[in-house]
Design brief:
The chain is built from 5 helices and 14 strands. The protein is α/β, with parallel strands linked by helices. A hairpin with a 2-residue loop joins strand 3 (26-35) and strand 4 (38-42).
Length: 200
């Protein structure tokens, strides 16, 4: 994958980077969230040397999360580089192509802080991650790319669109202020209300 040239702070404790990837013909996005142990990287794509140096200066890399089986990205490379565990759902581990150190399920917490929400019907092993500071981190089930903005994962890529939509409604029980995505820019304004409208 091509490396992103810069990281951007979305809000306190949350950083984001992305780059268009010709191999999949779409922007691939990643984020880092601060937990007590350091930084948890979510669906990371590679970072250029200067950007990686900047990220590492923010704190120790504590672990990596793959939100579904399609998000091998730079996960294994960074796991080896920083000697940290990879977290993913068991169903994702089957297709990632490398070992998952810690399988996670609905309601479990990563780093004692980030709550796992299973999103059935999307990609294999799809999970969302809730940070109680108001941030919901989503894998492929939701996309926020121009010109369409916030949309559901297209049916042709979902295991079961109806089940995915039902699973996504679970997110509405959280007081979401920011949504991040594996494809697209973070949504920092009216995130929960826009999600509610999409799922109506």
């Amino acid at each position: 994958m091509l490396a992103a040239d810069e990281i951007q702070q979305v809000r306190a404790g949350l950083w984001f980077w992305q780059r268009f990837q010709p191999s999949v013909k779409v922007d691939c996005s990643s984020c880092a969230v601060r937990v007590a142990a350091g930084l948890m990287l979510v669906d990371p794509i590679p970072l250029a040397a200067d950007a990686m140096e900047e990220l590492c200066a923010l704190g120790k890399i504590a672990g990596i999360v793959a939100t579904n089986g399609n998000h091998g990205r730079a996960v294994d490379e960074l796991r080896k580089r920083f000697d940290v565990p990879v977290f993913a759902h068991a169903s994702a581990g089957v297709v990632l192509g490398f070992p998952v150190d810690r399988e996670v399920r609905e309601g479990e917490r990563i780093g004692d802080e980030i709550e796992v929400v299973e999103i059935a019907g999307a990609a294999a092993g799809e999970i969302a991650l809730w940070d109680a500071r108001g941030v919901m981190i989503v894998g492929d089930a939701l996309i926020n790319l121009e010109p369409d903005g916030l949309v559901l994962l297209p049916a042709k890529y979902a295991d079961n669109e109806k089940e995915m939509r039902a699973s996504l409604r679970k997110l509405l029980r959280f007081p979401i202020e920011v949504l991040t995505f594996a494809h697209g820019l973070p949504l920092v304004s009216q995130a929960r209300s826009r999600l509610k409208s999409l799922l109506a």
